[in-house]
Amino acid sequence: MQYEFLKNFPRRMKNIGLYAVIVQNSVQKLSWKQYGFTKFDEQINLLFIVLLYIMEQSLKEEKCTMDAIATYVDTINVQYMQKDISYEQGRKLFKMQAIKHH
Question: What are the counts of helices (DSSP H) followed by strands (DSSP E) for the chain?
């Protein structure tokens, strides 16, 4: 039996390792608090929401731009988190997280 989610497994596992580094480093940043994410569980939830989005885009083999991530974060924030942040602030938050880990 062949599973679709195992397609390109080595590349995906490399991404998982990078995600672990992002999680480890992101939770230590104070920038989350500037955007209203003061609780650790909120920070982790949003981080995993974004990582899952990136993984979904990877499974579809579609590019995942910062603009696409920012749009997704904005949608999730409006629907579920309801933090007082704009699209641009959400984009800046995740851009800062991404840049600091490369």
Answer: 5, 0
